[in-house]
Specification:
globular; 26 helices; about 10% strand
């Protein structure tokens, strides 16, 4: 007899042991779901979404899942995580309770609701672990189908490792033999991200196994409202490969048929792993015994006939029947496993709750003691003792309870000697607890961008002025030569060397896998980059124009920007996103939606170089760090002249550091990117009327002026104008808050700080459209002049 995971012949007893262990995991997972719902409904946990009804197919998938493989999945894959040894009962409940200790909730340290799973790709210092020696799960996100783009990149990494020579595969790959496994609910296949990813994977021919868990419902909505023909594999039949056309291998299997599931997943694994062909596994006839989540009951939308069918075809119950019918186990043996599973889950739940509440109860006792001491010395003794008693009586306290009480008491003793003691306790407690909820938005490793040092470009005495795109091109050449793991891909990036020729000749030199054209599909371009970066490659994902970034903003915001945060620093994806924008003419190619971008993607650095040398320096800097970033090149700067540096690939533009590009005494002008050229023009013209403007190039919006150099300028000039081509209240509002509020520049202002932005609409077409839509040199001149007129109307009489 052969086992499910090997081709070796083994004894019946060994086979029985393996299968019964699978059944045990299924029963434990089911009991976790059942008890987990109770924990939510009794108030111990906030929300629950569980994997009941999906246990058996997940067991089969886990059998085919090997070390080095990656999962990009669905928030119901708890059985799979248990089956690969990546989660136990206590950890399951720790996630449900939101335990903020990564040692108890390794999935997210309490930052995500239960059902969102991850393994650790990094150690506690942010260094890569050996991913080839462990089974890997990329961190889940809730947005439906949001896991799909990342899945594409996880699979493509194997193709790169197998086919691109010179890359050090240590820790990351064994000759590209790894498979990326995706899971999704059938209703979520209606999302555009699903179809975009399916198409892209078929084009790229990557080792991906995509499982659709089909229980006929999406929350309460039946498949007839979700999917044409109510059958995702039926409508995807055109993707099936044949002798003449590449495509998918499409497999169908019933979700309650254990032996067929095991066989199907072994076949899927072999095809994807050996041939690098994507596989779709449509797992139908699944159930969802407790409905979508703890927010409601499925009895509200399933009729009696469907509920009866679900009871009969429950996959765990069917597996139990199969075991008995095939004389693998007796009913008594299985009942014993059932009883032990129930006991183990109950004990694990209790242990998880104790681990979760014990430190908080210790903090509770500490605060109660302090409040009683303060009360004994206070004229508000009665009121403080009541608060202390109320806190002490909370059987299951949370940290909010403690801080609310302490801060209320602080108000009562504001004029008493004990105020300092309580204030210190509150400050120390907040400093201790806040990082449990707020750390790792950005990297905290030794390769964070904040630890990189500037290296200035160097020039020969005979350095010639060249089209700025050539600085970029030759710097990319140096990068690709220096870093074999670096690759770039995007629309028109390959054959023609990008729309502005910044990659001219690079595909011919480095090959189609490292400098690649892709289809028109921005979300999965980002997904390719995220997944490959999670597996140790250094991808540069190119979005042709800044306006088109909107197609990918959800992936950037919900997945990439939150990755380090939602794993408490245990996964990273140092992806560089390259795009170009500003000042081109027309509604769809000249937008500057920077306010939307910077507020949606906190967790990604946003870099806005004013020329191509600065941009090249940013790429050089980023490749020595471990953080994701967006680089927005100036769209109208590629043909302007810049000198060619001699230290290509080596000079580094500092991140988070501003640059003063003109000294002045009367007003500080702050801007970035293409607009700076207009600011410089206006500043030169202002000199003719006796106004000396200091110009500061922000260079990076995230992070922003980490050395607080702008406020030093404002302290000298006492006036501030922010010029931006985003809409009113966009990036300019963010910049103004950073300077006036966070840097306290208001202390130095003699005039009201002001902004000059584009109009509220998108820019109109043509040169006149640009002039009347965005700030012009004349607008800047007159805005500055008006500020000076208000300050000294005699010296600067009104223009109008």
């Amino acid at each position: 007899m052969k086992t499910a995971t090997t081709s070796e012949v083994v004894s019946f007893e060994d086979f029985k042991k393996e299968v019964l262990n699978d059944y045990k995991i299924a029963r434990i997972s089911r009991e976790c779901s059942l008890l987990g719902r109770k924990e939510v409904l009794t108030g111990k946990a906030k929300f629950g979404i569980f994997g009941d009804g999906k246990e058996v197919p997940q067991l089969a998938m886990a059998k085919a899942f090997q070390n080095g493989d990656f999962r990009s999945g669905y928030y119901r894959d708890q059985t799979f995580m248990m089956a690969i040894g990546a989660m136990n009962i206590e950890q399951f409940f720790a996630g449900l309770y939101g335990h903020t200790d990564i040692n108890f909730d390794p999935m997210s340290a309490g930052r995500q609701m239960g059902g969102h799973f991850a393994t650790h790709s990094l150690d506690e210092n942010g260094n890569w672990k050996n991913l080839t020696q462990q089974k890997n799960s990329s961190s889940d996100i809730s947005p439906t189908a949001g896991q799909m783009p990342r899945l594409l990149g996880l699979a493509q990494a194997s193709k790169i490792y197998r086919n691109v020579s010179g890359i050090n595969q240590t820790n990351f790959s064994e000759n590209g033999n790894e498979v990326a496994w995706g899971t999704i609910g059938n209703a979520s296949t209606s999302e555009g991200l699903f179809f975009e990813t399916i198409n892209a994977a078929g084009v790229l021919q990557v080792p991906m196994v995509m499982s659709v868990w089909d229980d006929e419902y999406g929350i309460s909505v039946h498949a007839r409202h979700q999917t044409t023909k109510e059958n995702i594999s039926e409508i995807l039949k055109g993707f099936q490969r044949d002798e003449e056309n590449k495509g998918y291998e499409i497999l169908r299997v019933k979700g309650w048929d254990y032996p067929a599931l095991v066989e199907t997943y072994q076949k899927a694994s072999q095809i994807a792993r050996e041939e690098h062909v994507p596989v779709l596994v449509h797992v139908s006839e699944l159930t969802q015994p407790q409905g979508h989540s703890t927010s409601g009951s499925h009895e509200r939308y399933k009729n009696a006939e469907r509920l009866a069918w679900e009871a009969e075809f429950d996959c765990v119950a069917k597996m139990k029947t199969w075991l008995i019918d095939n004389n693998i186990a007796t009913s008594e043996e299985l009942e014993e496993i059932d009883a032990q599973a129930k006991k183990d889950v109950l004990e694990g739940k209790k242990a998880a709750w104790t681990n979760f509440t014990s430190p908080i109860k210790a903090e509770q006792q500490e605060l109660v003691g302090l409040l009683n001491t303060i009360a004994s010395q206070s004229e508000n003794k009665v009121f403080i003792e009541k608060i202390a008693n109320d806190v002490a009586s909370i059987k299951e306290p949370i940290r909010k309870d403690l801080l609310v009480a302490a801060r209320k008491v602080l108000r009562m003793i504001i004029k008493e000697n004990s105020r300092a003691t309580l204030a210190t306790w509150i400050e120390n407690y907040t400093e201790k607890i806040q990082p449990k909820f707020s750390s790792h938005l950005f990297s905290q490793s030794d390769t964070t961008v904040l630890k990189t040092k500037e290296v200035a470009p160097t020039y020969d005495a005979t350095a010639e002025d060249v089209d700025a795109r050539l600085v970029l091109r030759d710097n990319f050449d140096a990068i690709f030569s220096k870093y074999p793991e670096t690759l770039i891909f995007g629309e028109d990036s390959g054959n023609i060397g990008d729309v502005n020729q910044g990659l001219e000749g690079m595909q011919e030199k480095y090959g189609e896998l490292r400098v690649a054209d892709v289809g028109i599909r921005e979300a999965t371009i980002l997904g390719q980059g995220i997944g490959m970066a999670m597996r140790g490659l250094r991808p540069i994902a190119e979005i042709q124009y800044l306006d088109y970034l909107l197609y990918a903003i959800q992936i950037m915001s919900d997945d990439l920007a939150t990755l380090q945060y939602r794993t408490a620093g245990r996964q990273k994806a140092p992806l560089i996103i390259r795009t170009r924008g500003h000042r081109l003419e027309g509604v769809w190619h000249s937008g500057s939606p920077m306010g939307m971008i910077i507020n949606a993607i906190r967790g990604i650095h946003v870099l806005v170089p004013r020329n191509m040398t600065k941009a090249a320096g940013f790429y050089n800097t980023l490749l020595e760090t471990d953080e994701p970033a967006l680089v927005v090149e100036c769209l109208n700067g590629y043909r302007l002249k810049e000198k060619m540096p001699t230290n290509l690939g080596e000079f580094k533009t500092p991140i988070g550091v501003v640059e003063t590009i003109k000294q002045g005494t009367d007003i500080t002008l702050v801007s970035y990117g293409s607009t700076l050229r207009l600011v410089e023009q206006a500043a030169n013209e202002l000199e003719s009327v006796g106004i000396s403007a200091e110009i500061i190039d922000i260079q990076s919006l995230l992070p922003f002026d980490i050395n607080h150099d702008i406020v030093k300028s404002v302290a000298k000039t006492n006036r501030l104008l922010v010029i931006d081509e985003d809409v009113p209240g966009g990036a300019s509002a963010y910049i103004l808050q950073e300077i006036v509020e966070n840097q306290n520049a208001y202390k130095h202002l003699d005039s009201a700080p002001q902004t000059l932005t584009s109009k509220a609409h998108r820019p109109a077409y043509g040169t006149d459209g640009d002039y009347f839509s965005k700030p012009s040199a004349e607008d800047i001149f007159e805005k500055v002049y008006a500020i000076m007129n208000e300050a000294d109307p005699t010296k600067y009489p009104s223009l109008y």
